[in-house]
Design a protein that fits this description.
globular; Rossmann fold; 8-stranded mixed β-sheet; 18% strand; alpha/beta
Length: 292
């Protein structure tokens, strides 16, 4: 997806990947918002990629936030690796060090929730915010399609891969509105992107996730649908949970259960759907280390 002028004053939001050499592989990331601002790491959904960070570019710039959006291993332009949720903080620590970020907030959207929470053990992480976040199987409730794909990915990944390829093939040939309909029932008002621009962004985001093949997405579908490798009660930083009351991708009850299971959590219920909650929450999420 090419750069677009959707920032304050016509500033260019650039999705071009930057790369961090991790020795045996490269991690791709993009930065949005204020390049000299306070750092917030964006953990994209599943399927998803760094590109959705553009949705938060304008509010991040307005609030002096440097939003860092990496592609997780095997997703988008990041090279594949057999890495679990509990391995992700190592990549994040290397990325924050590379960017000279001694302190950072972490934002996890949808399937990015467990990856965001796993970062709690990093000294640099001040707080975590979950938006429309998936929960572990014991408390999470997602739609039938997500449950089916998660089960396939866990037990028969060889069978899940063709489904992901077919979905990508179909989505690539449909208008952008078809991709938008997967995450919202009513296109949200972003203040920076038109409905058409938002639809094209969501389509590009989902297609980018499997640009190098389905393996990365299949691996993540399996990871987020099995018991998480850490105890929610052990999360040691403040967490804010934004949950849409009209979310059909992640049941509203999931956000309530997450907030109850985390030792230092604040629940913010929003009258919106899956993607709409991210748009509504963005100004508050990016306001400071502890969203209000």
């Amino acid at each position: 997806m090419s750069p677009s002028r959707d920032g304050p004053g016509g500033r260019v939001a650039d999705d071009t990947p930057q790369y961090l050499d991790l020795g045996n592989r490269r991690l791709a990331y993009a930065t949005y918002g204020d390049p000299s601002g306070r750092t917030v790491l964006f953990c994209h959904g599943t399927p998803g990629s760094r590109l959705l960070g553009r949705l938060l570019d304008a509010p991040a710039a307005k609030r002096g936030v440097r939003l860092v959006a990496p592609d997780r291993p095997g997703i988008g332009d990041s090279e594949p690796a057999d890495r679990g949720i509990d391995d992700w903080p190592e990549d994040v620590a290397a990325l924050l060090s590379h960017l000279d970020a001694d302190e950072a907030g972490v934002l996890g959207f949808s399937g990015g929730a467990p990856f965001a929470l796993a970062c709690h053990r990093l000294d640099a992480v001040e707080s975590v915010t979950l938006v429309s976040g998936s929960g572990p199987p014991a408390i999470g409730d997602v739609g039938l399609a997500q449950r089916t794909m998660g089960a396939l990915a866990r037990h028969t990944p060889w069978l899940c891969s063709p489904f992901v390829r077919i979905q990508r093939w179909l989505l690539a040939r449909k208008p952008p509105e078809a991709a938008l309909a997967l995450v919202t029932q009513e296109p949200p008002q972003t203040g920076a992107l038109s409905t058409d621009e938002l639809a094209r962004l969501v389509k590009a985001d989902v297609l980018a996730a499997t640009a190098g093949g389905p393996a990365g997405v299949v691996r993540e579908l399996g990871l987020v649908s099995e018991p998480w490798p850490f105890d929610l009660a052990a999360v040691s930083v403040p967490v804010t949970v934004f949950q849409g009351q009209r979310d059909t991708n992640v049941a509203p009850e999931t956000g309530v259960a997450l907030a109850e299971a985390l030792p230092d959590a604040t629940l913010r219920q929003v009258d919106s759907d899956h993607l709409g909650t991210l748009c509504v929450a963005a100004p508050r999420v990016l306001r400071g280390p502890t969203p209000v």
